[in-house]
């Protein structure tokens, strides 16, 4: 079953950039993100939605785009991407896996049953997908890490997260 992954776009960009992104170069940084997500999508086939801030743009309404099967939503002027992600978490509930490191968004989504993956964790998964694509590896067994360590039972939230991570 394909997962629906909702990504806080600039949050993930911040996690993947060592020195942060430059406003003048923002378009190329976004394109690099889409390229990495496309490699992951080809490997796993999950539905991906990237939500980006258009808070300081001149968009009068939300703008939807499609980049090779990856849905991209830009918020309207004065609106943060966090609001869109919260609305999606409210509507879809357990059906979403949300990639963000924003504590407010994560807390809101967890209360509605969504599974949260931090931007750093998902960035590591994207790096494995990049590697798999470069090497021609298609078997997803090679792209997952196995949980090792303490055999004590995890909390329900953590078990859901591990279960969802295994599907990524």
Q: Which strand-content bin applies to the residues?
A: 15-25%
Category by helix and strand content: alpha/beta
pLDDT < 50 stretches: 139-145
- The Rg value, from CA coordinates, equals 16 Å
Major sheet, described briefly? 6 strands, mixed
Q: What shape does the CA trace take?
A: globular
What does this structure look like?
With 168 residues, the chain is an alpha/beta fold. The chain has 6 helices and 6 strands. The protein has helices at residues 9-16, 26-44, 81-92, 103-111, 119-135, 156-167, and strands at 4-8, 47-52, 63-67, 70-74, 96-99, 115-117. Strands 3-4-2-1-5-6 form a 6-stranded mixed beta sheet, with helices on both faces. Helix 1 packs across helix 5 and helix 2 (26-44) crosses helix 5. It is globular and about 50 Å long. Residues 139-145 have low confidence and may be disordered.
Topology summary:
Layout: E1 4-8, H1 9-16, H2 26-44, E2 47-52, E3 63-67, E4 70-74, H3 81-92, E5 96-99, H4 103-111, E6 115-117, H5 119-135, H6 156-167
Parallel strand pairs: 1-2, 1-5, 2-4, 5-6
Antiparallel strand pairs: 3-4
In short:
Helix content is 46%, strand content 17%. By secondary structure, the chain is α/β, with parallel strands linked by helices.
Please describe the structure with a list of short key phrases separated by commas or semicolons.
single chain, 168 residues, alpha/beta, six-stranded mixed β-sheet
